[in-house]
Design brief:
Largest sheet: 3 strands, antiparallel
Mean pLDDT: 83
Radius of gyration: 33 Å
Low-confidence stretches: 1-9, 527-548, 605-611
Amino acid sequence: MTGLSPAASNSRQLDQRPVLATAPLKPGFDRESLSRYGDPSWDLGPAVFRENARRCHVTVHFTSVEDAGVREALREFLYARLNVDLPGHRKILPPGSVRQLFNRARRFFDFVRGELGAVDLHRVDQSLLDRYARHLRDDRTRRPIIVAHLLEIPFNLHVLRDYLPSGGLAFQPWDGRAPTRVAGYRHVRENRTPRIPEPIISPLLAWSIRYVTEFAADIFAGRKELDRLEAHCAALIEQDSVLERQDRRRQQRSRLEDYFGRLRNEGRGVPVWGTAHNGIFLRHPASGELSPPVNSHLLHLHIGIDTLIEPKMHIQLTNGAPRQIKAAVLELGVETGGMDTPIAILPETGKPWRPRFDAKTLAAEERMLQSAAYIVCAYLTGMRDCEVQAMQRGCLSLARSEDGIIMRHRVRSVAYKGKSARGEPAEWVTIEPVARAVEVLERLSFRAASARGLTTLWPVLAAKTVCKDHLSAEIVRQLNHFRDHLNDLFGTPDKPAVPCGPGEQPWRITTRQFRRTIAWHIANRPFGTIAGMIQYKHASVAAFEGYAGSSRSGFRAEVENQRNLGQLDDLLIYFDERQAGAKLSGPAAARITKTLDSISDDLDPLPAMIADRARLRTMLASLARTLHVGVLADCFFDHGTAVCLKQATGAKGPLTALCQPTLCPNACITSMHRSAWARSAQEAADLLKEKRLSTLQRGILQQDLDRAKTILDSIDQDRTAPGS
């Protein structure tokens, strides 16, 4: 328990108590200057260390509550939860969760007021609580776990009764039954966060890496050009400041003509914006074709005009140069963007990856680059969002050998889950694409972060005066915008760059999905297409722990959990395909087929494909634990019969490097392995064309080719057999 005494009777004294009476504070904050109990709003941000915390989640506005009784009940309840620690009952509420608890408690107090006419906890009885529980459960869209969280409020009001000025609830709600039981919630160990499907994460990651490794150079070059143009414009304005207004106009028109002359010599058009804004379009004087309007901002930078200081000097106004611009459009045509920065060519199309920049599209591409770097960092490290967004400048380090070769890339950040409010320093050993992303972020973030006195790698890049500092939850919006942006730039209506999800709807990306998806792939698809793309060299959890994860962040446990879930998911696919008539190949085929058919018989009279999936998962669980997905075959591991273990001692699991899929009784081959066997056959056939092979080499290759052809024939026969 804290030093906080039971409920004070003196309301004035209570009003002056600091809200954060016990919480640790971030450096630079004086507890005496923080929010007080009686303040209309509480700002708990000084005690929230997570960089991704949204300001609205750590701020409470009591003025939003109209009823005075509800307002005061909320105030005393939240204060107690923030400052009272009752071991064995309730830990002190983390300040970052205050807004969530505010909403839950407000719902209960509003209900009490509706039932009793006032918030009087002395008049609350079990009957009222039962009505509240029914009220919550009647909403079919509200999941039982949410109901359980809402029902925790009356339980807390009882536990904290000695620390509430109102006295709280004198009786134990529901005779001590847990809120989860009252709500009818059954705990499910499986992670409900959706895993990003491979057809979606593969191109999303691939394009993100390209942004970081290829497109970033153009974006940084564009920013450098814009900085130079702004400095040039400022110098011209300073130079013209001694001239009369008309003389300044003549100078500007002369510079404009010189600029159009350069465009003429380079075979370029008058710059127009990348998109039309405010519904304004430019109609070509000759062709009548519509385009976005002329990029006056870029013209102003070239000729020395600042319309923020002198709006009347706008080049498109009547006394500016509208006829001069119209004549240039008629002669030269138009060019999207208009900045000089060259845009790299996409090898697959032979065209630039995007049109030339303007100030707006450049700023937008900087945000897209930030989003791409986030995807690379979050996905390839297994970091949680709060861990990614806690990264600071200088977080990357390289461990080198004596000859200077980079051995490891390390990223320092903070692990929060299960830790104190401050979190704990943690280190992730990761791979080269992440190092490139961090280097890009160092450069990308410097301007915006430094302007606000920050060292974060994730500042809001917009240069607005009224703007929050840290990206935090805005990243979700940016990530989904990035998905749409990729489809606009590199996709077509028939073939989007990032495919749609179920229901032909764009897949909604959230930050939690990356950790679960990479954990699943590491555990269950160590040789899959994603793994190949980023060159994973370690399949085991233990190896990956030192390769791209942190023990302090609990990533190894996450991988182990996803391995267990993935094994069962894969076996469910086995079962469903067997019900559809598929046949298995390989030495283990007969054993696995018999097991699957036996389970199917036990499920009768239910049709197998609509059988109770929970019951089916239970029946398959034992077999699933033996399944290890492989490239050429899946292994239903049996220690006593494993051929790979005859060549090694002390191993407790399958040794994939020593797998002999055509000889081992644990090996099962399905149509999913066909492409790997086809590649193996083609490679052997290509090598056999080499004339300099020895007789021994040629014999071994021919054996490999014959074996692959036999397997392919078996798979193909099974696929074309009646009923398959």
